[in-house]
Amino acid sequence: MASPEGALRVGYVVKRYPRYSETFIVREILAHEEAGLDIEIFALRPPNDGHFQDLIARVKAPVNYLYLPVDGKLAEELATATLSLHYFWDLLKSADELLPDFWDCLKSEIGEPSHHVYQAMLLACHVRQKGIQHLHAPFAHDAATVARLAARMAGASYSMTARAKDIFHESVRSDDLRRKLEDAAGVVTISDFHLDYLRTTYGSAADHVVRIYNGLDLEEFGYSAPADRPPVIVSIGRLVEKKGFGDLIEACRLLASWGREFACRIIGAGALHRSLQSQIDAAGLENQVTLVGPRPQCEVIQEIRNAALLAAPCIVGEDGDRDGLPNVIQEALALGTPVISTDVTGIPEVVRDGETGLQVPQRNPGALASAMERLLLDRGLRVRLSARARQMMETDFDIRRNTARRRAIFFSAVRSGIDQPVEECA
Q1: How many C-beta atoms lie closer than 10 Å to residue 57's C-beta?
Q2: Which of 163, 210, 165 is nearest to 187 (CA)?
Q3: 314 with 322: CB under 8 angstroms?
Q4: pLDDT of amino acid 72
Q5: Residue 341, phi then psi, degrees to nearest 5
């Protein structure tokens, strides 16, 4: 391992890459690269989006795909794939040659899903061959599972970020997340709400978790006051339950019944497209509410700049899924577009009611409609909220400062690995 005071090689382990909705990961990688961090990306699965953000072209890091080979092909459906014995034995041979204490590690992980173990072996071989010193998983789910196993096999360190579905969803196994928290050299979470939840739920296993907000390049997201904008409401995100778009459409129906002139533009794609369009049609809102579909980041920024407000009526889904702290809220606050949102997870930390935005109860279209009417009519309120929000963004959400704190965790993890002998798996 090289000295952490010199060049550091970090592997970012993600579920899919690129992914249309995960611009925050791309921005994080770009900020690290700007600071000189040497990154390689490892994706467990191929991309499945039909559109990609223009930010992707700026990333220098090479991408490695850790697919499961089946009968000479690369299989995406890992959990149901039948592994070709040829590939399996070839990988075992490489792992035996490259990885210290490999067999003891393998025995200690009996019971782990076979596709995770296979991908971890493949990743661990990459780590040893490419001189990667540290692995980071931007989510605490499958990516962190594979990063954890690979780090143990390769004698490297790993860290992870705990965000939303990976800690709140009903599918999360508490014993598995506890083990990851205990094993990781560093754990980041994205709001004080998340930090309190992890420490309350997992006790001492979460003692070393730190809160670091996602950040933005505030030069790219320049502020403009929203005094003279047209009555346009914009909302952005995947068309899934936790985004609360059904409540937004009902709030728009109420606004229309009150005789207010407005246009609402919902940007994104997802499983609920058909049902949301049916709701729009049934309410007679075809001329006021538009499902725009996915758009590249440069167009999304312009949509936010042109709007009088951004509505983010987030809810906790029936399965426990919820947003952590939607990046689009931060983008709007930086750009000077007032935000209306709810009390889900870490959102009240940035949308402070009456100070940096307006907060309404979850699943309350009437309150949402009243808040939207208030902002559409009161230009002075829009300007006051936006000015305070921009000041908060400059203080707490500068991406260069926040990613520097993440890099400090990487360096510390590598330094600890150099100063101490590698812990054996058995």
Answers
A1: 8
A2: 210
A3: yes
A4: 44
A5: -145, -165
Q: DSSP characters for 134-196? A: EEEESSSSHHHHHHHHHHHHHT-EEEEEE-SHHHHSTT--HHHHHHHHHH-SEEEESSHHHHH
Residue holding tokens 């809810």?
315
User: How far is C-alpha 166 from the geometric centre of its chain's CA atoms?
Assistant: 10
Nearest to 140 by CA among 163, 107, 106, 173: 163
- 132, 91, 54: which is closest to 295 by C-alpha? 54
DSSP 355-387: TTBEE--TT-HHHHHHHHHHHHH-HHHHHHHHH
Question: Domains in the chain and their CATH numbers?
Answer: 9-215+400-419 (3.40.50.2000), 232-396 (3.40.50.2000)
Q: How much is the pTM? A: 0.89
Residues 231, 138: Cα–Cα separation, whole Å: 37
- d(C-alpha 187, C-alpha 179), whole Å: 12
Residue type, position 15, single letter: K
Q: Which of 260, 368, 257 is nearest to 314 (CA)?
A: 368
Joined together, the tokens standing for residue 202 give 């997992």
Provide the residue type at 289 as one letter.
V
* Amino acid identity, position 319: D
Residue 153 backbone phi and psi in degrees, to 5: -65, -40
Q: What is the pLDDT of residues 58-94, one digit of tens each?
A: 999 999 999 765 544 555 554 444 555 567 778 888 8
Task: In whole angstroms, give the CA distance from residue 315 to residue 318.
Answer: 9
Of 327, 385, 377, residue with least CA distance to 353: 385
H helix or E strand, kind and range, residue 105 = helix 102-108
Decide: helix, strand or coil at residue 65.
strand
> If residue 341 lies in a helix (H) or strand (E), which one and from where to where?
strand 339-341
Q: How far apart are CA 246 and CA 337, in angstroms?
A: 22
Whether 20 and 48 have beta carbons less than 8 Å apart is answered as no
CA dist., res. 359 & res. 348, Å (int)? 8
Segment 230-253 mean pLDDT:
98
Q: Could you tell me what percentage of the chain is helix, strand and coil, using 3-state DSSP and rounding each to the nearest 5?
A: 45, 15, 35
pLDDT tens, residue by residue, 246-302? 999 999 999 999 999 999 999 999 999 999 999 999 999 999 999 999 998 899 999
CB 280 within 8 A of CB 249: yes
Biggest CA-to-CA distance, the chain: 73
CB distance 372 to 255 below 8 Å: yes
Place of tokens 């985004």: 243
